[in-house]
Design brief:
single chain; alpha/beta
């Protein structure tokens, strides 16, 4: 594409939390942002939150766990300018287990249907979005996949979730090896406990680990949950500024895995 075109970033799961903060960070960096989500309302709220930069956010609804939607979103990115960055942030976590009991359970208590659906949302979506983007991305482009500390170590429960995040990490490393020679970088940002809607059911309950002076430092040596904006800065750094990072995993967890 012509270098005089506006740079474009696709951010999936942009309707709240880390995705919203990331979309806003990229508009601040001069990007047009294809902000993706399954519902228009939350994405429109992200657009409104951009204020005077709202015209840089293009609302694009769809389920990125479906190939047709992923390809349609990719075409929207190509139409918006120079498609330079893909941020795969969409996924489900703890709150999904509240509305879909068993989906965040240990393996013995996870049905085949629950396994397949979390895999579809969290990992198939990364395949579909990367597969579509890599047909068009050129040297200088980058992919950032948002995984989790749960993909770097074993977990007591949420075994499907942990598997999707570990798979995302190794897929990213493989992409780095395969497409690095073309000048396309692929990296991972792995957040720890971040104050988003995904964990609101924990933070609002008597199980909130940060409410206790002892357990808070066991969860994170900084003694607090992360903020979405802190993760968004790491994503932007890996996507745009860390030009010699390829196949890297950046933990943004307050030292939880130290």
């Amino acid at each position: 594409m012509s270098s005089d075109q506006q740079p474009v970033a696709v951010v999936t799961g942009a309707g709240s939390g880390i995705g919203r903060a990331t979309a806003l960070r990229f508009t601040a960096g001069g990007f047009n942002v294809i902000a993706c989500g399954r519902r228009a309302g939350p994405i429109e709220e992200t657009q409104a939150a951009a204020g005077t930069r709202g015209d840089q956010i293009i609302v694009c609804t769809g389920d990125v766990g479906l190939q047709d939607d992923a390809e349609r979103i990719t075409q929207a990115a190509l139409a918006a300018g120079d498609y330079q960055v893909l941020v795969n942030n969409a996924g489900v976590g703890w709150n999904y287990g509240v509305s879909h009991p068993g989906s965040m359970s240990a393996l013995r208590d996870t049905s085949a249907e629950q396994w397949r659906e979390v895999m579809r949302i969290n990992l198939d979506s990364v395949y579909f979005m990367c597969h579509a983007a890599l047909q068009h991305m050129q040297a200088g482009a980058s992919i950032v996949n948002v995984a989790s500390g749960g993909g770097l170590r074993g977990m007591d429960d949420a075994h499907t979730y942990a598997t999707t995040k570990a798979g995302m990490i190794n897929l990213t490393r493989s992409l780095a090896r395969a497409y690095g020679p073309e000048g396309i970088r692929s990296n991972v940002v792995a957040p720890g406990f971040v104050d988003t809607e995904m964990v609101s059911s924990v933070l609002e309950s008597d199980m909130n680990p940060f409410a206790d002076e002892t357990t808070r430092y066991q969860v994170s040596p900084l003694g607090r949950p992360g903020q979405p904006e802190e993760v968004a800065e790491a994503i932007y750094f890996m996507a745009v500024q860390a030009t010699y990072c390829n196949g890297a995993v950046l933990s943004v967890d307050g030292g939880s895995l130290a």
